[in-house]
Design brief:
The structure is a single chain. By secondary structure, the protein is mainly alpha-helical. It has 26 helices and 8 strands. Helices cover 66% and strands 5% of the residues. The chain has a 6-stranded mixed sheet with strand order 5-6-4-3-7-8. Strands 1-2 form a two-stranded antiparallel ribbon. α1 runs antiparallel to α2 and α7 runs parallel beside α13. The longest helix is centred in the N-terminal third of the chain and has 31 residues. The protein is flat. The protein starts with a helix and ends in a 10-residue tail after the last strand.
Length: 638
Amino acid sequence: MIGLLWQCCVVGLIALACSLALTPVARGFMRRIGAIDKPDPRRVNRVPVPRGGGLAVVVAFFVAVAVAVHVWPGVWAHSAFAGILPWFVPAAVLLVAVGFVDDRFGLPPVVKLAAQIVSAAILCWGGARLTFPEAWGAWVAEPWVYVPLTLVWYIGVVNAFNLIDGLDGLSSGLAILGTVGIAGAFLFVEPTALPVASAAFVGALLGFLRYNYNPASVFLGDSGSLFVGLTVATLALVSRRSDAFLVSMGIPVLCLGVPLIDTGLAVLRRTLRYMLRRLDAPQGTEGGTGAVMTADRDHVHHRFLALAHGNQRRAVWALYGLAAVLMALGFVALAVREAKATAFIIGFCAFAAVIVRAMTNVELWDAGRLLARPGARCGRRTATVIFYVLSDVAVMVALYVALLWLLWDFLPAYSLRRFLNFFLAYSVPVAVAMVLVRAYTRIWGRSTRKDSFMVVAAVAGGSLVSHLTLAYLVPELAGAMVRFHVLWAALLPLPLLMARLAKTAFLQWLAFAENRRLCRRSLQDASIPRVLFYGAGVSLRATITLYEVNVTRNHMALIGVLDDNLGLHGRIFRDLPIFGPLEVLEEDPDLFARLRPTQIVVTTPAIPPARLAEIRAFCDAHGIALLRSVIEQSPRPL
């Protein structure tokens, strides 16, 4: 076995040598035909760099594989890649050819997507498909299940490496880490297997990385990044066991966590911006084209580059480190089989926690811009009703199944299918009651306690009707279903209300996060006013509500509240601290220096003239602008 592993290492060294020799050749060829990345606002390279160096990776990989097939056929026979090679070659040739044409002349994104679908279909037909354990049921082996999932896997991974190829050495380095992790996991579950193809692929990438590391003299280009994504996706599918789905597929997903999450964020971000362009476009115009296909400079590696102050090496190594941590968590899941699901979830949550800080001002900001548009709180009635109906159905199905699982031992000995038939008896009365209380036509962004009470009453009334109906139709269920009925009526209102109030809560959180961002920026940017409010009353509440509604168009930092009521000192008003009366700022220079207000907005309409004169004198002495916020209390003729 050791000798066979040494032969795998020799295959990798052959690929390494070929890649080291061929990359300069590919670089010179691409430069001669004009396939060059020229600097522009979206790219990070400062000088023109040839692209298409990935052709050397392709040739080196296939040369090493050819050596393994003809020189050491016994070694190749033990490789999981051996059976898929006849199908992999045409699929790879198609993608590399499309990528080469794109590197030289440029192709529409739709053409590249079509090529990816065809390549994925070829490999799926050849056997490189996403399969599930037989214990999950016979339905998972149906083509309508595994074919679309396999296509999604291939397209996702291929585009992940294509999109993240934005920094010197990033895409090739992450591919090396992912391939090593996949091969290690495969050896863990199949010690007799030989990762010949993985060794050849890693060797080819290492040779290319010599020229692609910062400062790069050549880029992968689409011809290289598409091939890299296709190879990694195929290695993940063939290097796994169908009876250990989470173990053998969880590791590849963790190893490819950085590019996969970047792709998911790109799809979300570009779709949101496309929707905003369509909504902001003048009447009768298209408002822009391309939701996911439009390039931008907000990828994860761009944000890490900003955090590293433009140092590409530091940003790339930070992303390498994140990928290594995720891979280590995957191997912990392998070592501790009982906790593999927990480790898998913790791994993704940890990575999500790391990128949330950088993501807040991009994807969530664009979502907030979409939700906070004028009139968006009411929304289009048809879309809103559909959302509420679908969310209610999903909530009721989830709660019903969860209660069946929890209370199965206390229920009569009926079949699961019969209990699922009872779902209509529980859900239909509640749905009818929700329609009767007009829960689907209320504007929940302006909801009151009465609106929430009506939902609770609808659930209680509908649940009572369902219980009485079952007691009449199936008398033996009346006593056995008491626990089920009580839990159903008690738990259902909460998720129904959460689905309706989530948008309002999200906008309030977005306003809080945006105000914190503006507070930090205003310390360096004098154009952002730092506002103190005077008076914590109804007018201030209305002013802050207006601020939350216009969160994406505000350009001021709210830093706190002043109020003459000494009992309010130290309290919080809508996330703003109350510092007390004006004299607090005069008596505490450190507090004044920390707040550095540039505006004081008087929100109370009943301030005495003498007090207003004192505030004006304080503002004049410290160069602070004094403003008044007036909320109309009575209608006036137009």
